[in-house]
Amino acid sequence: MAKASDYGAFMERFILQPSSSSHELPLNGLTFAVKDIFDVDGYVTGFGNPDWARTHQAAMLTAPSVLAVLKGGATCVGKTVMDEMAYSINGENKHYGTPTNPQAPDRVPGGSSSGSAVAVGAMLVDFSLGTDTGGSIRVPASYCGIFGIRPSHGVVSTTGVIPMAQSFDTVGWFARDPEILNRVGHVLLPFPDVNPVKPSQIIIPEDCFRLLSIPIDRVTQVLVKSVEKLFGSDIVKHVSLGDYVEDKVTSLKPFMSKENQTQEYNIPSLAALSTAMRLLQRYEFKNNHGEWVREVQPDLGPGIRERVCEALGTTDEKIDVCQSLKTEFRSALTDLLGDSGVLVLPTVPGPPPKLQTDPTTLESFRARAFSLLSIAGVSGFCQVSIPLGLYDNLPVAVSLLAKHGSDGFLLNLVQTLYGSIKEQVEVAEKTSY
Hints:
Low-confidence stretches: none
Number of strands: 11
Mean pLDDT: 94
Distance between the termini: 40 Å
Largest sheet: 11 strands, mixed
């Protein structure tokens, strides 16, 4: 078991030395941890569940993404706790314990890359590797007050990583500052060397920010003022993303539901996008792991058990529509952003929920979260979650999205903006008390 001083972040500690100790290497002197979904030669990849660990052999090879950062000069110090079978955005694990959120110990750390986020937030490592299928980097990054990137789909190798749902699986990473986030990108991304480019437009979807449970201005103003200071106000544009998507993405119609018009504010077209994403995710999860679940009957925690059961009952109805929807949505979002446009989003709809909140109570929060998270998920665009300090003593975050393949540009932009963002956060924190 991990020691208390580890914030419960680690499954097991070990040292993997970098391939070379040259001072020239981009990650020289940095330490990192890996989520227990990555293969490391000689260790069983546990996938967050003891029954999985018990029924699988030790890995024979190390995942290429882990090898790449070792080759970049970083030292691996162990494997981190994750949500079972990567099927949650909460971060609670009934078997291995819930890693302690360093920013808010009575709140969940976010999942499924919970331990990887906590290890960075608690300063146990300089950066860490995780995966993001539905939101598993972005959510814990926002909850733990750190940076996290979900890269463009397909640009970082997922070989040697247990699949969850291949249409959405990405290998991402966490860091406490944008400079280290960017340095890791230089090692993992196939096209990292992009000169800092002024974004052509910064798009604020007003409707998405109305999903927030904290004052909208506390998030938007910090970013808008930073952008205006560096690039001028003429590049900031305001849109209704839901209306744009409903108008441009006709293959969403089969997923539009009358129930989406509930009393609580939501965005019907983005709720439909989330429905389609979760359907395809369930279908692929079943194809990947259904046989193992039926055979082993694993002991699964609350919430996860229900989602896995639902996945096992999924048929191929509407799956073809999901695939064409991905293509159509990516095309519509590419048209909206143009070459170097950036979409601003709340990473999640509010602060991290309290530990052991009843799953039913969380359902409305999850629904709003997935309306936001599915935008990068379905489009395959890259997204970085940026910490914006605290509101009511709880972490706040905002995200920037850029088109598929613009990862280097996005990481440079985040690094360029962050000095100004920090100044604005200090002002906002003073005025919100």
